[in-house]
Design a protein that fits this description.
The complex is a heterodimer.
Chain A: E1 4-15, E2 18-30, E3 35-39, H1 46-53, E4 61-70, E5 73-74, H2 80-87, E6 92-95, H3 99-102, H4 109-120, H5 125-138, H6 155-167, E7 173-177, H7 185-202, E8 205-210, H8 213-219, E9 222-227, E10 230-236, H9 237-242, H10 247-254, E11 304-307, E12 310-312
Parallel strand pairs in A: 3-8, 3-9, 6-7, 7-8
Antiparallel strand pairs in A: 1-2, 1-4, 4-5, 9-10, 10-12, 11-12
Helix pairs in contact in A: 4-5, 5-6, 6-7
Chain B: E1 12-24, H1 29-33, E2 40-52, E3 56-60, H2 67-74, E4 82-87, H3 91-99, E5 109-110, H4 116-123, E6 126-129, H5 143-153, H6 160-173, H7 179-183, H8 192-204, E7 210-214, H9 222-239, E8 242-247, H10 250-256, E9 259-264, E10 267-273, H11 274-279, H12 284-292, H13 330-335, H14 340-345, E11 354-357, E12 360-362, H15 368-384
Parallel strand pairs in B: 3-8, 3-9, 6-7, 7-8
Antiparallel strand pairs in B: 1-2, 1-4, 4-5, 9-10, 10-12, 11-12
Helix pairs in contact in B: 6-8, 8-9
The chains are: A alpha/beta, B alpha/beta.
């Protein structure tokens, strides 16, 4: 049994203007110690998926169906208090997007790191501070940071603090939602190095959510490509980059300018992603797809295992 | 394969010399009573470059390095501390300026000595595209109003029909077609990519000769980025326009630019052909920057990234003496023991930006030719004393 099994999860937002199907039937598995990257463009539902895994979907959104099983226990069916006590932060924690805003400006860094320790464990304040010091050192900061306030720290330092917080209770799974967006490349590389190190040392599973194809390869063994609320392709990082199947994945890879090699003319995907209140009836990528043919507009393609461990949802590869 | 988009460059149209933009830090009453000196944020601290017709010139660097401020200074949107910028406007504009009594030399006018009223005609010539297409368009203006505004301000087109004609042409150039479908829409009815194309149309509608594009694609999704870059690339031959392209993304810079200038803490540390600089960086900072960028390659996860830089960017108020990069420089740290001269130079003397290979300018004491310049400068100074 895999550590995390997500099955057909659906998270909808009930807005005044209609139901936005932000995540619409996503399934995947994550083994212990594995790193999974979820890539997609803005509005594809990757952040909503992350919120769903923590049962933290902000209203008017809610999980309307599916299962999220950690060690076989479905957290969608659990009560809120049970999730809070047993799951959140303990089993699965999150490194939030925009570390700048994830910290409370009126508390010192130390107070914020020990908060989950005091709530979830029997530690005394003294022990908790001791653990906080270890954590801060593990993320490469000086312990004196604990007495500082967030505004006294640089962006990179804040991001490290947020990572330390996510690790506080030694969770099995850490979700990192755009952990390096808004950071400069040098700081970004430092943070990614840190996450690699933590992954190797702590053997934790990481779900990395990003729009940046460069960042995703820095950490992910497996990659899921999301488009309009669905996973369209899933496989090992090597398979996804060297042998992409879905036309969307192919186009995405060819749209990124590279630092090395020949300069090819970049390709782009014409059009815009669909409105998730009323997605197209067939394949959601069909209106923008260069290889669209007869079944694409009528029926949604099922996700199939094309080769071992490489899944794709596209009519080009499935028999009807 | 050569660059798909390389074009023949024309004559020089802009020459910036030792541009400085310093922002004064507010002093409170105690500072004044205690006679503390006025402190400045050295946002741009002595930048020189030139741009040719049809060239796409990139300013790259991390946040806070002064790349955006450099662009804004050329439009006189921020107060300039010192320095000069000579700009060659089109003939028609030059005639207007002549009539206003503006001095010009070989067709070049100096931008910073003009009065505000004299600068007005030049605003048509130098245009800006901003990063955020959600913030740069007035939400209450239809697309045609956004574009017509420019025409009205610069008195282009005498009748409404004539102006609509010009608007339609501009929208076609940025491939926002069919024009009729977009012209009556409001910005909120457009996607990010479409909005950015409206912003580009607004910049080109007055037929400018220089466009300052400040991170025009960073807020857009990857799949539409390429489309916007292509629009920009096509414009330069269609309109004979030059670009200052400000970006933090070196891969984008390599794709679109002819030359790039790498900025660090208000100064250009390296300048040269875009592909050459990225393939073979000469300044330790450029090297570190390039080494830090994750290129999409699944093999990357198996290795740690070797960061050739230490510490963090210092405060732009107290700029390190000597070479401003030396406190973070790995080359300096590794070689100061063996190369005693470095210890005399890096922390004390600011290296000049100078040509070390054909077309490649660097400001680093690592290169003997730069040391020569510094030494000859020092000896003449000693003689004078």
């Amino acid at each position: 049994m895999a550590l995390l099994e997500v099955e057909n999860i659906r998270t909808y937002f009930y807005t005044l203007r209609g139901v936005v199907k932000a995540v619409d039937g996503v399934s995947f598995k994550l083994e212990k110690g594995e790193t999974l990257g979820i890539v997609g463009e803005s509005g594809c539902g990757k952040s909503t998926l992350a919120w769903s895994l923590l049962r933290l979907v902000p209203p008017p959104g809610r999980i309307v169906g599916g299962q999220i099983r950690i060690d076989g226990k479905d957290i969608v069916a659990m009560s809120e208090s049970e999730v809070r006590r047993e799951i959140r932060w303990k089993r699965i924690s999150m490194i939030f997007q925009g570390a700048m805003n994830a910290l409370n400006p009126v508390y010192t860094v130390g107070d914020q790191i020990i908060e989950p320790l005091l709530l979830h464990t029997n530690m005394t304040k003294h022990e908790a501070l001791e653990r906080a010091r270890e954590l801060i050192e593990a993320v490469g900061l000086a312990p004196s940071i604990l007495e500082r306030y967030p505004h006294e720290l640089s962006g990179g330092q804040k991001q490290r603090v947020v990572i330390a917080m996510a690790l506080a209770l030694k969770p099995d799974i850490v979700i990192a939602d755009e952990p390096t967006t808004a950071l400069d490349v040098v700081v970004q590389a430092q943070i990614l190095n840190l996450m690699k190190k933590l992954h190797q040392e702590e053997k934790m599973s990481i779900i990395l959510i990003t729009h940046d194809l460069g960042v995703v390869t820095e950490l992910s063994e497996k990659i899921a490509v999301m488009y309009a609320g669905k996973i369209v392709e899933f496989g090992s990082a090597e398979e996804i980059f060297e042998n992409p199947l879905h036309p969307y994945t192919k186009a995405l890879i060819r749209a990124v300018p590279r630092l090395k090699g020949d300069i090819h003319k970049l390709e782009y995907i014409p059009g815009t992603p669909p409105d998730l209140r009323s997605p197209p009836p067939g394949c959601r990528f069909a209106p923008r797809c260069p290889r669209r043919f007869e079944p694409c507009d009528k029926e949604e393609p099922p996700i199939i295992e094309y080769s071992k461990g490489h899944y794709v949802a596209c009519w080009l590869y499935s028999k009807r | 394969m050569s660059h798909a988009y390389r074009v023949e460059l024309g004559e020089e149209i802009l020459r910036v010399q030792d541009l400085k933009v310093w922002f004064p830090i507010k002093r409170d009453i105690t500072d004044i009573l205690l006679r503390k000196p006025q402190l400045y944020v050295h946002a741009v601290d002595g930048v020189s470059f030139n741009i040719r017709k049809r060239e796409i010139f990139c300013l790259v660097g991390e946040s806070g390095c002064g790349k955006t401020t450099t662009g804004k200074a050329l439009l006189r949107l921020v107060p300039v501390h010192s320095g000069k910028a000579f700009f060659k406007p089109r003939k028609e504009t030059l005639e207007i300026l002549d009539a206003m009594g503006v001095k010009s030399e070989n067709g070049f006018v100096e931008l910073f000595e003009l009065k505000d009223s004299q600068f007005r005609p030049l605003r048509r010539e130098i245009q800006m595209i901003y990063q955020d297409p959600y913030g740069s368009l007035n939400p209450r203006f239809r697309i045609k109003d956004v574009l017509e505004e420019v025409l009205l301000v610069h008195k282009i087109g005498s009748t409404k029909e004539e102006r609509l004609e010009i608007i339609a042409k501009a929208l076609e150039m940025v491939k926002l077609t069919p024009v009729e479908e977009f012209i009556d829409r409001y910005p909120h009815q457009l996607s990010g990519g479409q909005r950015q194309r409206v912003a580009i149309a607004r910049a080109i509608i007055g037929n400018p000769s220089l466009i300052i594009a400040d991170e025009p694609v960073s807020m857009l999704d990857v799949s539409i980025r390429a489309e916007i870059l292509e629009v920009l690339l096509n414009l330069r031959t269609m309109l004979d326009v030059s670009f200052i392209f400000i970006t933090h993304d070196l891969a984008v810079a390599r794709y679109i630019c002819d030359r790039i200038a790498v900025m660090y803490l208000g100064k250009i540390v390296e300048l040269g052909d875009a592909r050459e600089v990225i393939a073979d960086p000469l300044h330790p900072y450029t090297e570190a920057l390039i080494a830090a960028i994750p290129d999409p390659d699944p093999a990357n996860r198996l290795k740690f990234r070797d960061l050739k830089i230490k510490g963090e960017v210092p405060n732009a108020v107290f700029v390190p003496p000597g070479c401003r990069f030396h406190p973070r420089c790995i080359y300096y740290e590794q070689h100061k023991e063996t190369d005693k001269e470095l210890e005399q130079l890096c922390p004390i003397v600011e290296p000049p930006l100078s040509e070390v290979k054909p077309g490649r300018y660097v400001s680093c004491h690592r290169y003997p030719s730069i040391r020569e310049i510094v030494k000859s400068g020092l000896s003449t100074k000693n003689k004078q004393e």
